[in-house]
Amino acid sequence: MDAAVPNEGQEPLGDRPIAASAAFEGSAEIAEARDLARDFLTSVQVEHGLSVSKRAMGMAQLVVSELVTNARKYAPGPCLLDLEITDGAVRISVWDSSTAQLSIQAADPERVGQHGLEIVTAVSETFSVHREPVGKRITVTLALADDPGGAAAGRRTM
Prior knowledge:
By secondary structure, this protein is of the alpha+beta class. It has helices spanning 30-48, 54-74, 116-123, and strands at 2-4, 18-24, 79-86, 89-96, 126-131, 136-143. α1 (30-48) packs antiparallel against α2 and α2 (54-74) runs antiparallel to α3.
């Protein structure tokens, strides 16, 4: 894993995004991607005083794991993971070199496997796929805080 230290040597917080990035080349690094997400959100709480719910912490690690796993499994070469705090949410973006269309299947409790993107779209506030000059970038956002009424933020009705 090649990682950029979050915000190292940059301007004061008000003038810069809260972000972290890393490149991953091996399937063993999927755990490192989850660790990066957890460590990043922990620093968001500790160093920047932003509230991150337990749900958001767990969902961010799940989404990172699913997206990096897919990139490592289906695309040649490395994948890039970017995490950024924006408007009370964490934006998770994974780039890979594959130009293949994504296949998000309809919910089917009897199907074994192939549920990753189905889960990611269900727990995310937003989900988008952008073609890049080389490959594609999948970007999702997850709310950092739960609804004060107790509803899990970020869930969409299917």
